[in-house]
């Protein structure tokens, strides 16, 4: 199949099938009411391809593994290993190689296999479909459907392709996954405007959406990648994954360290060659020793393990992390863009207000759980026997729908149309006796007349046979007002209809973002059936019901917490502007009073990218948006340096979730496409979990920063010792493998203590940190440099003293390694209270991992010193009490000196503008 043929075949369907008649669409796709022939369908399938989304090429396991070694510090170690191999130092080469391999494997194993978002999109497609070919209906594999096929759908089916309706019967489609609109869409074969948005194309059915009620027939106008879901899959595949703030900062730190290491290595080699006349082998050994000493090879592993521990903590808080870096990124978020339906709201239609001519009633409870009361204006439970106006209305609501709710293992769900489910729950809460009523006839809901009616037989003692018949009608308020002459009065009788008053009440509920339905009735004794023509007049208007997809109760508090943390929350939804604005006010996203600045998809369409960038930070409500609009909003925010988190549950959210700095999906009601595109999946579908995850992310970043401050002096001290030895022209106090040993054991024992440090007070009262802020602030660098000098001097002194005392280089080197271990243990206590004095008992409490790590470090160090196989591998040797006492005493000195240095740095910092980062005074971590 050549490209030109494919393009021509896919152009057969008109660009706006919804805007022309079904007959014109059939002619455009060279089909007819009887469908295609088997031969023609096979020909088109061979030409156009299967009705499937394209499978993207996945990187091989090898490529994904190599990506974990793309670090300049790892490159330096690789060069050192190669030089060792050239010189034949195979023990040193093996140790360095093991370190390199282990560093990458940790990240590879923890991250696991990242699945493609497109796999989730493919799961949304139907597996089979009813198709008419050769004039006969049959069931075929949906992948074999082609443009021009005539298909049939009914309640419960998943639409197999994009279809232009030809006929329909009370057809309603759940398009929330595609459009974000919580109410099921009514469908008909009537044409609509060519510029109608996806949510307004009522004559179209879209691939992957679900039929909630009714049935219909239509002609396929798009398959595979040409469907709306296919178009979204292309958007997902086109989004580039952005580096996280932490990744960018660590890469910057790595480049700085590599430049510094290179400059110092050259200086050291020149001095060794020209001043001390060292030979090439000695210079190469010194250079390798210096490189291994200066490179913090434990840093990647430390960051990975810290993030992995954070992933475990977040899982306990119902946030499942698919990509480890997302933990930290969420902690640096400045803006959360959230879908409305199913994320901020429950995606469960709920009757909230009932209005009759007599009174206004409030309905308690949310969602499909039929627990709650209907209360009057005094806050008392409304007894139906005392309130006949309410009794008649809720009875009509309960009788004119075919939906019901049922309890599953973990929640209540609706079987049928969500709006009708809300009416069923309302009747149950009010205590309406719908079970004793027999339905005699019905007029189903159709989009042309916008109401449903039933002929019902009710038990009563007022007639000889004990029953009476009534017509009950529920639907659009304007259609029922047109057919009503009277309204229900307080005593249960009737009064003339006051249409103006009802229109005011309807407008008041609509202004609150409620979807308004009306109910009406009339006696029907002696009537055996009803048809649409019987309902043109004579109805008694009972009242109106305000229905809403209610906000999650916990979402309001979570949004307030986010605002307190300096995080802006923006609602981006496919729902109408009025509904979106009302929900935004209720959630606290928009002000409760005054005008709300809200943009619709049409507004966004009229703006170019520059115009959108100018207003995007000031607008918190976006309505009637498409997937492309959401992408533009995220890009515009990122252009201002915002770190954007995008949350959602529908397939229409997948592209923007992929593009955002961190994507968050709902785990229960979210589509597979969204969950596979996301970095974090909320197992409880709770927006409040995002706020808790932000707090966890901030704690993790603080601990990574503390860990970096703690880890670097080990390398700094070792590098200073090597440089000092070269400058003095003496034998190296540390061999490369000994340097690797101390780097790894301190990184993987002591550093993990800081990874588990609890959150600092006031963590969620800080403003988000700047995207340009580095892991190491100037004060943190001052601490690192000071600690490097202090620990380095102590190590060099131990080496010289033990060398002169014993004349044994192995004892001197082993003692120097021990000094580095104990010096780091002392400095760990300094780092635990980095922003204050560690001269307190608190430095020894609050984190039991401190003692575990210290004990593990000492056990490993004893093995390094006394195990014969370790002596062979690392050129270590047993040492006596004198060496232990000397190193322990100097370690105490390290702790005392560093506390003095911290106090000086704090005092200097208090006289200069404060930075957010390490060593602020008090709560100076807040950024204005």
From TrEMBL:
Q: Which domain of life is it from?
A: Bacteria
Does the entry feature the keyword Nucleotide-binding, yes or no? yes
Q: Where is the composition biased (Basic and acidic residues)?
A: 41-51
Q: Which organism is it from?
A: Microbacterium aurantiacum
Q: Which UniProt keywords apply?
A: ATP-binding, Membrane, Nucleotide-binding, Translocase, Transmembrane, Transmembrane helix
InterPro entries of this UniProt entry? ATPase_P-typ_cation-transptr_C, ATPase_P-typ_cation-transptr_N, ATPase_P-typ_cyto_dom_N, ATPase_P-typ_P_site, ATPase_P-typ_TM_dom_sf, ATPase_P-typ_transduc_dom_A_sf, ATPase_P-type_domA, Cation_transp_ATPase_P-type
Q: Where are the transmembrane segments?
A: 65-84, 90-109, 257-275, 287-311, 708-732, 738-755, 776-798, 810-829, 850-869, 881-901
Q: How does it sit in the membrane?
A: Multi-pass membrane protein
Catalyses which reaction(s): ATP + H2O = ADP + phosphate + H(+)
Cellular localization per UniProt: Cell membrane
Query: What protein name is recorded for this chain?
Result: HAD-IC family P-type ATPase
Sequence segments annotated as region (Disordered)? 31-56
Where in the numbering of this chain does the Cation-transporting P-type ATPase N-terminal domain appear? Answer: 16-89
**Pfam families recorded for this chain?**
Cation_ATPase, Cation_ATPase_C, Cation_ATPase_N, E1-E2_ATPase
UniProt KW Flavoprotein keyword? no
Q: What is its main location?
A: membrane
- Give the family, as the similarity comment puts it: Belongs to the cation transport ATPase (P-type) (TC 3.A.3) family. Type IIA subfamily.
SUPFAM superfamilies in UniProt: Calcium ATPase, transduction domain A, Calcium ATPase, transmembrane domain M, HAD-like, Metal cation-transporting ATPase, ATP-binding domain N
